[in-house]
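README: folding subset

This subset contains proteins for which both the sequence and a predicted structure token string are available. Records are stored as plain text. Below is the entry for Fumarylacetoacetate hydrolase family protein (409 residues), shown exactly as it appears on disk.
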Amino acid sequence: MNNMTAAAVAERARAPQAALQVLPDDGLQGTLVGRVWAPQGAVPGPAVVALRPEGVFDLSAHYPTMSTLLDTLAPAETTRAATGQYLCSVQELLANSQPGARDTTRSWLLAPCDLQVVKAAGVTFAASLIERVIEEQARGDATRAQGLRSQVVGLIGENLADMRPGSPEAMRLKALLQDKGLWSQYLEVGIGPDAEVFTKAPVLASVGCGDDIGIRSDSAWNNPEPEVVLAVNSRGQIVGATLGNDVNLRDIEGRSALLLGKAKDNNASCALGPFIRLFDGSFGLEQVRNETVHLRVAGADGFELRGINTMASISRDPTDLVAQTLAAHQYPDGFMLFLGTLFAPIEDRDQPGGGFTHQLGDLVSIQSAWLGGLHNRVAHSEAAPPWRFGLRAFMGNLAQRGLLQGTAL
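--- output ---
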């Protein structure tokens, strides 16, 4: 899978590059909140910030965690009314949040969530449903995928987008596929009544814009998954959205769905950002439902892959996915919910019939008009910066900065 030496990857990451777009197409007109690492002050630490035309403002004195801010009665109005300490210009922050361009004496973007659990919905698009069935039938072997693809499509068709999961029509298709011996656990969650919702990453483990995104070194068939991610507060209200990369290790999950944790939850394997766009008069669920997410993978080998994730093609409404996440569980600190993707690359990269897989140093850019751009460079999970800043470190840092006195988390 990897044609680059570690030294070459490091050199590629250091190479200068044109600035990548991070802001939405309408710039700073929306209500944009995020988290940054703020090295200013006696004790450096993560800060909840608002991005405004006047600059980046630290709101941590009032809202020490993003969870706290999103739990207010009207987060967008609260953000617009909040005063804060000026940290830097927006341009300075974004320039220091580009892959390979970090100056640790200045602020940079973190994943925009903190105390929220990171959940993910799977198999929510017909195209990805078909690819999951192929992974399962291939037992994780990429070389078998092309032959199986024509067989599977011949039996179940390509266009399942109009089929409502759990409907009588879907149940008739389920019975037909069972008769043909093609039934799959992925078809169960793709067209059955129950959505697949799993925990993608531990609290505070997600990486932000500019960080390395991790794939396991023992995976030889993998791809990015560009997705819209909802921000949901403790009351189950959807209050905003961001972008995410739900990295998929196709060979590992394809061997067995019971390996989902090994395929999905690894060091640096969950990227979120660049910030959360809060719901306000200009942006809400209708924009989420109709958003188009663009993907570009640019390899150091000159390879380029492009794709789109069109939210209008989703088979389960975002509100249904949130309701199913909340059906038998509570989230007192809120949660982030990946909505799934229809993107499943099948273009050959290294060899005919081998399909697409990442190489070290790939620059993955996920972009949308309303939510901006999330940019990460691919590294091995084992070699990416280790996750050290957990809940004890976070609480200790907030205490050292005097942010736990008289404020609710």
